[in-house]
Amino acid sequence: MNRSLAFFLMILVALAAAAGGWLAGRRQATNAAGHATHGDAPPGGARKILYYQSGMHPWIRSDKPGKCTICGMPLTPVYEGETGAPAMAGVVPLSSNNISVLQVRTARIERRALERTLRVSGALDDDDTKHRRLSAYIEGRIEKLNIDHVGATVEEGQPLATFHSPMLLGLEREYVGVASQLAQATPALKAELESLKRSAETRLRLMGLTTAQIEAMPQRKEGEHLFEILAPISGTVVSRDVYEGQYVKEGDRLFEIADFSTMWFQFDAYERDLAWLKVGQFVDVTTPSVPGKVFKASIRFINPNLNEATRTAKVRVEIQNPWIEEGGLRRRELLHRLYAEGLVRVQLGEALAVPRSAVLNASGKPVVYVSLSEGHYQARFVELGRSTDDYYEALSGLKAGDEVVVSGNLLIDAQAQIQNSAEPSPRSAPGPSPAPAPTGSLIAPTADEAAFVVDFLNRFDRVRKTLAQDDLEGFRAAIATLSPSARSLSEKLGARAEWKPWTEKLEKGSAFAPSANLAEARKQFHALNESVVAMARAARSITHLPQLKFYQCPMAGRAFPGAPKSAIWPQLQGPLENPYMGKDMIDCGTEVKP
After folding, report:
1. Where are the domains of the chain?
2. Among 314-328, 428-442, 485-499, whose mean pLDDT is lowest?
């Protein structure tokens, strides 16, 4: 009910304003005609018409008679010596020639399906779960290598090398002896011999021999002393660390085999991108070594442990790697450790969207220029939500059907800044004048009282630093300690008549309301800063703060809507850190005398 009533009142106010504008335009036309009739015109005839203007939409002007392009009402003539109705604040008029020269283009605001594309890069590695390293189980000598180069394809159980080991021969003789005795043993000894055989089998298996190799030992020819080292899996040899005739010790590395049937595309995802990545999402993977082909695969794992140095998390995509024929030989299509790139397309649903090229952000708050009619553009602040490749989600400030400038808006903004020097607009409207600072001399506080002044300035300086670093969370934490300090200062020095006006203003100004964004935070900071600057200047000499400095920013008008064109603030020490412009222009300003 309250919303309906408020909406109805807004309509009434808008209608009243429109009627007032129309009546003002009519009066101007009537007055102009009356003045011309009663002798204000020069002897030669009627006064010169400067231009024609719409009474209801005063930014609509023309050098010829006609009708308003918005409401259709006749344009009212404005004569030499008169001033027309003031144009709406923030509206920039451009002639058709200027529009052509500036190459102004507009786009219509509408609801559309938003899609965000993340572009990532990484490397193709083999499947960690199918990667094997072969080490020597026992001392011995490599007699022959069956695989003499890295990159060879092997099958599970294929001999890689032959190996001679006196210790392994001893274990073989023990096993064969027990096996032969077991074949001729009486029932009374059979159980004991079977236990000895199992023990010998276990020791041989621990030496790296397979069950088939162990069972074939009794059939080996006498004098045969070599054993085969077999491939534990099918795959590709990625490392060979031995040569024929090389003597190896237990634990020495021999071969490394990887299965390339499935490749892992791993890339680093920054913290800001993790919100868009989910297990199961499809990724289009491409690599320069296979031009023109896209490998479509899904995300299988996102590492929850971030790299502390780079603030990234590893994301894994598993890709099937088929066999291909090349020169009569077979190989895997994707090679090991290739560079690759990926595209992750995230569907965000439908929303009111504004083109990214339409949004300017020079003042710290996003603004677009809306085409009101042919040749008239109004600066309008907007609230943005999610960002995509080409669009922002428009939360407020725009509606479907609005025409926004997507090309030439920077030049329109420059024209607006020139225009704003003569008349206020949403980009540079002056804020409320600060209350006059208390006057009178300050009596030096005692050492105990001065400590409260210094404490307050220290806490205020911490608040300033958070804004200089664009740290909104830090700002919220810092202001929580500022108000108690101002209260303590007021209790300590408020009883003194000359200090009371200062302490009252500081205590009142330190009670910050919650800030939703940096622009609001800077606006609240500025309101208190006016009083702090005045007090700090007066107290500088008596509180033993020779390092206290004062800086001035000539571009403070961009900090928040209604900000003054320039602002001064105190710092306990250098270098300059601008709380109005933040990190992007932290050193903007100059030092000024106290």
Report:
1. 2-87, 105-114+348-420, 128-256, 262-347, 447-592
2. 428-442
pLDDT reading at 3 higher than 50: no
Long-range CB pairs of 502-510 (<8 Å, 24+ gap) are 502/438, 502/442, 502/531, 502/534, 502/535, 502/538, 505/435, 505/438, 505/531, 505/535, 506/456, 506/531, 506/532, 506/535, 507/483, 510/479, 510/482, 510/483, 510/485, 510/486
* Crossing angle for the helix pair 472-493 and 518-539, to the nearest 10 degrees: 30
The strands making up 253-258's β-sheet, listed across from edge to edge, are: 131-135, 253-258, 235-240, 153-154
H-type alpha helices, 87-229: 96-102, 166-184, 187-206, 211-215
The CATH number of domain 128-256, selected from 3.30.1700.10, 3.20.20.140, 1.10.10.10, 2.40.50.100: 2.40.50.100
Reported CATH class of domain 105-114+348-420:
mainly beta
Radius of gyration over alpha carbons of the chain, in Å? 41
Q: Are 475 and 499 in contact (CB under 8 A)?
A: no
How remote is the C-alpha of 61 from its chain's centroid? 43
Left if phi > 0, otherwise alpha if psi is -120 to 50, otherwise beta: which for 264? beta
Which of 266, 318, 271, 329 lies closest to 295, judged by CA? 318
Judge whether 427 and 409 are in contact, CB under 8 Å.
no
Q: Out of 72-76, 211-215, 271-275, 374-378, which region has the weakest mean confidence (pLDDT)?
A: 72-76
Longest dimension (CA), the chain: 150
Q: Between residues 4 and 154, which one has the greater pLDDT?
A: 154
What digits encode the pLDDT tens for the residues 212-252? 999 889 888 877 889 999 999 999 999 999 999 999 999 99
pLDDT band for position 553 (50/70/90)? confident
**Rounded Cα gap, residues 268 and 341, in angstroms:** 11
446 CB-side CA count, 13 A: 5
| Inter-residue contact 350 to 114 (CB < 8 Å) | yes
Intrachain domains 105-114+348-420 and 262-347 with the same fold:
no
Query: What are the residues whose beta carbons fall under 8 Å from the beta carbon of 317, sequence distance 6 or more?
Result: 264, 265, 266, 267, 283, 285, 297, 298, 299, 300, 342
**Three-class SS state of 112:** strand
- The pair of structure tokens assigned to 150 is 């890295």
Kindly indicate whether the domain formed by 262-347 is annotated with CATH number 1.20.1530.20: no
How far apart, in whole angstroms, are the C-alpha atoms of residue 117 and residue 120?
A: 10
